[in-house]
Amino acid sequence: MSRCPTCGAWTEVEAEHDEAAELLAAYRRHCADHGHHILPGDRVPEHVAAELVGRAPGTLRNWAGADRPLRFSQIRGRRTYRLDDIAAFALQRPVD
């Protein structure tokens, strides 16, 4: 959580941003530690995205058909996911 430099009040928006930034950094470390290449545009292939959210690649494909909020792009017939979209999805998703 961060404080406003002017008034000293805690700011929730920045706290959410800080949490997303920490999660994004953790995802980048995970990719580096496991030999996953981050593609241009800060994107990862579907199997890496699935690993980061703790699901199978088929589940991500099912979510796309069910209109779940995890956005993806199709590049040369393959799905890629932006790391910041994965982090935002992970922060809004209820823990099961």
Brief summary:
51% of the residues lie in helices and 16% in strands. The chain has helices spanning 12-33, 46-53, 57-65, 83-92; strands at residues 2-3, 10-11, 43-45, 73-75, 78-82. The strands form two sheets. It has a three-stranded antiparallel beta sheet with strand order 3-5-4.
Class from helix and strand fractions: alpha+beta
H and E order: EEHEHHEEH
How much helicity do the residues have? 40-55%
The tally of helices reads 4
Strand content: 15-25%
How many strands appear in the DSSP assignment?
Answer: 5
Biggest pleated-sheet summary: 3 strands, antiparallel
Radius of gyration: 15 Å
Strands of the widest sheet, in order across it, are 3-5-4
- Which regions are unreliable across 5 or more consecutive residues at pLDDT < 50? none
Note the gap between the termini.
25 Å
Mean pLDDT, all residues: 83
Query: Looking at the structure, what is the overall shape?
Result: globular
Features:
96 residues, two-stranded antiparallel sheet, globular
Description:
There is one protein chain. The protein is built from four helices and five strands; from the N terminus they run ββαβααββα. The protein is globular, with a radius of gyration of 15 Å. Strand 4 and strand 5 form a beta hairpin. With 96 residues, the protein is α+β, with helices and mostly antiparallel strands. The strands form two sheets. Strands 3-5-4 form a three-stranded antiparallel β-sheet. The protein has a two-stranded antiparallel ribbon with strand order 1-2. Helix 1 crosses helix 4. The longest helix is centred in the first third of the chain and has 22 residues.
